[in-house]
Amino acid sequence: MFRKLQKFMALTLTLLLAAGANTMVQARDFRLGLITPPPHVWTKAAIAFGEELSQETDGAHTVAVFPSRQLGNEAQMMQLLQTGGLDMAFLTMAEVSNRIPQFGAFYAPYLAADVNQAGALLRSKVAENMLALLPERAGVVGIGYGMAGMRQIASRDAVGSTADLAGKKLRITPFEPIKDFYNEVGAAATPMPLPSVYDALANGQVDAIDMDLELIWKLKYHEHSSDVLVTNHMMFPMIGLVSAQVWNSLAESDQDVIGKLMAKHLDSVIDTYIELEPSFLEEVKKTDVNVRMLDASFFGEAAQGWTEIWADKSEGALAELKTALE
Ligand code: BEZ
Q1: What is the pLDDT of residue 4?
Q2: Do 129 and 211 sit in the same domain of this protein?
């Protein structure tokens, strides 16, 4: 009888331990990298995501956020994600489009008229389906999209027409679709990462920059600009990524909570730009620059030229993306 009781208790203990092991969260300290500085909307969203993940998992998971390229530029962070050397990143879609040309379709000039339409495109089924390309083609899992504001031009000298940009050194984020656009415009597209832009504009290394209103204001590019051309010529998406190696090592319940919360905070970035873009314009207008409100006609045939190049280069994604707005 006693031996039977002993056996029963041992079995119960084993079952209890096994049940405990199943429900126990494997604690992880994740690292998330991005290139934007601490006050930027993307960085704030990354921090808020980490805080909520920690709360929801009772402190089991934490996220250390590394802004301002502390872990390297976007190409380097992408490589780290692929090897599992970095857990997570919020990267411009620019970097992703350098590896998977379908994502270049999002940069079609005037595809989105404004931040509202940009948000609608990024929340579309077509955009969601494109995330499925990422694990196989880039070794990363795409959780969702964020964005920055629409692209504008800030110039050291007055610009009356695109003739004033001809041959001028115009800073671009380093990626193909924007280079193709400014080649069509006739400017000398000059790839340059974000942290180098202020000095380059200040010392005349570049004549103009491709930028959004938030940063023209917050990073004070207006201080070295005569004109800001509000052209709204392109959207500027961001993607929230997790290393596929890291993702595959996570329990399904962890994937669920990380996926849910990261997607929520990425989506809130879209809301933030939709809400704040008009106020960024007001702030820029308060500075000393000459703000010119322009439309697609300013660029003449450049948008058409770009579309002819990218209809093929985007491997059909451009045509598909256009259907998302119908
Ligand atoms: C840029 O390269 O212009 C940029 C990068 C990240 C966020 C916003 C702007």
Answers
A1: 54
A2: no
